[in-house]
Design brief:
Length: 171
């Protein structure tokens, strides 16, 4: 009985050691991106609140716009804003942003959006990605927005606008 317990302990210990090893993901485990839609957002000029504990607070009012993709299309409702904290050391600018606004689909469904991310430019180059979260009515054709992770990046834009491509992260 003692030998069985020792053997069992050795086998379980070996399994535990293997379970604690880091194993690189397989191709099937790596997430992929599926294009969801593009936002074309119109903006008012930014205004500066000033230096606050987290950096310089900048606000960019959202005045409207449009969006379109394979499964949805509509307008951006005026009244939201992009709230930013900016920090610079003279060589690099790092901005934490949080855009809060709503969109309305062509069939009349309102969807709330909260888009958080980072913009940085400087010695290490340019980086601008965000992770939007959507709140769509559960009984709408857009409820799928509630149950996925999305990432967002910029596309070329005109002055006082921002064009953003949104991708759904899929397995």
């Amino acid at each position: 009985m003692k030998r069985i317990c020792i053997a069992l302990f050795v086998v379980l210990s070996a399994l535990n050691i293997k379970a604690q090893q880091i194993v690189p993901p397989t191709e099937a485990e790596k997430p992929k991106l599926e294009y969801a839609f593009q936002l074309y957002v119109t903006l008012e000029p930014e205004y500066v609140v000033g230096e606050v504990p987290h950096g310089k607070r900048v606000v960019i009012p959202i005045t409207g716009g449009i969006f379109e993709g394979p499964q949805l299309k509509g307008t951006i409702i005026p009244g939201g804003a992009d709230y930013q904290y900016q920090k610079t050391d003279g060589k690099n600018l790092r901005t934490e942003l949080e855009a809060i606004y709503s969109i309305k689909t062509d069939d009349g469904v309102y969807i709330h959006v909260r888009n958080c991310g980072i913009f940085s430019v400087g010695e290490q180059g340019f980086y601008f990605l965000t992770a939007p979260k959507f709140e769509a009515p559960e009984d709408s054709p857009y409820a799928w927005l509630n149950n996925a992770i999305f990432i967002c990046g910029p596309a070329p834009s005109e002055p006082n606008t921002v064009r953003l491509n949104i991708w759904k992260v899929v397995r």
